[in-house]
Each structure stands twice: as structure tokens, then as C-alpha cells.
Write a structure and sequence with these properties.
Layout: H1 2-64, E1 71-73, E2 78-80, H2 96-106, H3 112-118, H4 124-138
Length: 141
Amino acid sequence: MESDKKARTVERRAFTKLPDRVTELKKEQRDVIDIQANILEIEVQNVLKVVDASVHDDLNDGANSMHSSRSIQGSRQKFKLPEIELKKSDDDELASEDKFQYLIQATVEGSRVHDYVNSFPLSVISYKKVIEGLKNRFGRE
């Protein structure tokens, strides 16, 4: 009986320690997962740095070799984009609404000029105000 009691005590101790060991193993597993995630994040950052440096170099090379016609050079193909030519006409030939529309199309989206021009409604009076405002804000003397 005494030997059974000792064997049972050993088994009870092992059974009591089992949940603590399971909790400990789960914590170790989470730590391993966190370390793997950190390693993956570092690898991604390194790849992004390499890509960023490559893009930066490509942009610098493109800026140094740009000619009158704009070109975009990819890793495999070279594209030549035509120069944008706006129609030139006499002021009397076009209506102010059409001139305003041409002005909107001629501005670069996201620029201060584009934002300023688009802040006015499309009308004859607005066109005159926009031209005056552009001359005052951005005109060279």
C-alpha cells in the first residue's frame, strides 16, 4: 500500500505540473512565432531598400539622359511619349468656357495651379477671375 501511495504521489505531481508545462510551451511557441515575424519583417525591409535604391538609380539615370522628347525606360522596354502640344488660337476664336476647359486640362493634377483653377466654377466670369488670379500669384514680372 505504501508503494502504491508513493507511485500515486509521483503521478499526481506530474499531472499537477502538466498544465504549467503546457502554458510554458505555448509561451515558447509564441516567442518563436514573434521571432520569425521579426525576421520576415527585416527581410522585407531589406528587399524594399534594394528596390528603392534600384528605382532611385533608374530615376537618376533617366534624369541625366533625358532629351527633348520625354522617355520612360523600364527594365525591358523603352517608351517614348510624345510632347504635349496645346492648340494655339486667337483669343476671339474660342469661347471663354472652352478656354477654361483647356486651362484645366493643361494643368498638372495635384499642383497648386490645378487646385486653384478647379476651385472656380466653369463660367465666363470665373475664367477671367482665374486668369487674373494666376497672373497675380504665379506671373513673372
